[in-house]
Amino acid sequence: MADISNELLSAIRKTFETELKKDRRFHALLKRARDGTGSYVYANSYARLVGRILSTAIKANVSADVLPQGQLYLDIAQNVITPMLKEGHGLTAEYIKLVQDQINKDAEIGLASQIPEFNQDRASGLVKKAAAAESYDDVKWLFEDDAYLQNFFEAEVDEAIQQNADVQWRAGSSPKIIRTYHEGAKYCSWCAQLAGIYDYPCDRLVYAKHRDCHCTVDYQVGKFRQDAHTKKIVYRGDIEKLSVKSGLSEKEQQLLLKVKLNRR
């Protein structure tokens, strides 16, 4: 099994690196971060792209046909999937640092950028879930469905926002967390009602995302924030609450009750 692990890891890494190199959007997003025009909205897009390309690489090289007895045994999963998740984390963390360094510089904040550590618990949970199945075919959706790995890396972006907002809040700043609803292919009343601007600290539900969620989370610190797309400076006094749609169930309304208390 050690031999197949090495072979699979090498094949996945090669496909992953090849797909990254030829993806124009990947390089465009990275250029933004390096030239100082990136943002957490772009970091979210970058994380989703890393997840999608990693999913493509795994799908291209792993199948029940190449696995012993058609099963992704735990030692194989630990030796193959975990290292690739760490590589994806490394790329996402690099992007986060570039973005946060620029935010701190623009806001004249002399604090070190906070970069989230690799989420070993979540990675281990994914690996164990995949290894528990009698056939890889029963769990291949964990890796072949773009949304699952995309959410894995998007969570790191949201964690970075919270960590940096927390450090700045403790230092005396007044960060605001901004959740924007992107409808995507299907309207989601739960996401639409979460959209808005929140004073930090706020409930963790503000960062919550379901599978296939297209919402983005950003934050402002200092006297202003810069719109990620138009680059127009928007002052705190001019920020308006994002409009939302109605239609939540009673259960969904209860989930939102806590965060609405902190909403601005």
Question: Quick summary of this structure?
Answer:
With 264 residues, this protein is mostly helical.
Could you name the key traits of this structure?
single chain; 264 residues; mainly alpha; 2 domains; three-stranded antiparallel sheet; two-stranded antiparallel sheet; globular; disordered C terminus
Flag low-confidence runs. Answer: 224-248, 257-264
Oligomer: single chain
Biggest sheet, in brief? 3 strands, antiparallel
Distance between the termini: 55 Å
Task: Indicate how many domains the architecture comprises.
Answer: 2
Name the shape in a single word.
Answer: globular
What do you see in this structure?
The protein has 264 residues and is mainly alpha-helical. It has helices spanning 2-22, 24-34, 40-61, 74-106, 120-131, 141-144, 146-170, 189-194, 250-260, and strands spanning 176-180, 196-199, 216-220, 224-226, 233-235. The chain has a three-stranded antiparallel beta sheet. It has a two-stranded antiparallel sheet with strand order 4-5. Strand 4 (224-226) and strand 5 (233-235) form a beta hairpin.
Q: How do the strands and helices of this protein lay out in sequence?
A:
Blueprint: H1 2-22, H2 24-34, H3 40-61, H4 74-106, H5 120-131, H6 141-144, H7 146-170, E1 176-180, H8 189-194, E2 196-199, E3 216-220, E4 224-226, E5 233-235, H9 250-260
Antiparallel strand pairs: 1-2, 1-3, 4-5
Helix pairs in contact: 1-3, 1-4, 2-3, 3-4, 3-7, 4-5, 4-7
